[in-house]
Fold this protein.
Amino acid sequence: MDRRQFLQALGAASATGLLGASTQPARPNIVFIYADDLGYGDVSCYGATRVHTPNIDALAARGLRFTDAHATSATCTPSRYSVMTGQYAWRKPGTGILPGDASLIIDTNQLTLPGLLKRSGYATGIVGKWHLGLGSGEIDWNAEIKPGPLEVGFDYSFIIPATPDRVPCVFVENHRVVNADPSDPIHISYKEPFPGEVTGRKNPEMLKMKPSHGHDQAIVDGVSRIGYMEGGKAALWVDEDIADTLSAKAVKFIEQNKDQPFFLYYPAHDIHVPRMPNQRFVGKTDMGPRGDAIAEFDWCVGRIAETLKKNGLDKNTLIILSSDNGPVVDDGYQDQAVERLGSHKPAGIYRGGKYSNFDGGTRVPFIVSWPGHIKPRTTSNALVDQIDLLSSFAALTGQTISVGDAPDSFNILPALLGRSQIGRTSLVEEAGVLSLVERDWKVIRASDKPRINKYTNTELGNAPQPQLYHRTVDPSEKQDVSAQHPERVKDMLAALDSIQTAGRSRP
């Protein structure tokens, strides 16, 4: 028996109780595809009609589509931190949206999702957007960059350090900037421009896509960004080629690890701004760059699925597809996203979007496929949260999590595999303030912050008094019923306080 056969047998034994003794499943490869800013209503299997996502739809047809799945936060960095650590990001200061030169915010000693799978014998890789910080101080982009993904459980890393709209606009493979040139060193600043640096603010005539708000600093590839950058000309990415580059690296990781169990985390850059899809996708929709970027992301999903099939891995691979937060239309660039939105509803029936306390901020597409183990063309209304992947994968691989690890991650594996319609009974959502979902109810803490994001025109869900919504009667959160149920508001806020002060929510 070789190493892979041994691990498959071990996985089959540990999963027997969940999947049935007669099936004796092989330990699956795991691929987690994480879109950026993709809304609940942005894909056709969730109701979109003006943009078509055949590859995502095919994934849903092969498996299970969730209707009440959530990211932990209405913004990116906190959601990604929670997925990786099984801990609500709001428990740790400094886990808000990070600049491109931030230090690593994950403690290298804590258990992570890739670390959990690595100790179970999986080869682990990340290809895509990281946005969880690098290094432990001022980063020298011309030398080894560590700690980073390799220090928190990944065997291989090919990443965008932060976001496509932030400098540095380079890829980092393992510990080094790709194509770095010692004679043209990279320097990054989030305070002041470098002497003689052209910027979007001062040189708009140099831009192929202009900002609508912010995003008017360093110009890279004809697009102005957040932050300032000089040097590294040979290392700069071409925006229109990012999807091709990342998906190719994902394909290579799969092919190189096809003879052993592997975990691939593929946090795509689409559909985050600047939306600059490859020319092949321009005009694929009538919604402009935002719609075309959705089409490009869908193509990447198809490329990964096809690679698995071509290598005979499709039947033994568990695929999860989701998004880091809800949608945003105008997020800083003049890309006609608002003008060409038409009847399309990026968040579906849900109110708000990225940055919002309303459900549009955290309710996201969530699809799970594992042929032979998950019934195809099924739908679940179980309440699930991405933070639970860590504990659920521990159960799948027969591992035990210590009390100090993954303090907010629950084992919801039966729900993820469609064996149960019950996931969580409650979860905490993070936007401007914290909200608590308990079964049919949601309470939002009081806040004196603005009600509308003046830049993105998103309803933020802030109000000077607590709000209460009945999630099944009023899924669009149009009717605040806090006045009719003061005791429920009081009890739910007390429960939220208890979760926050306890330091953990997992039993």
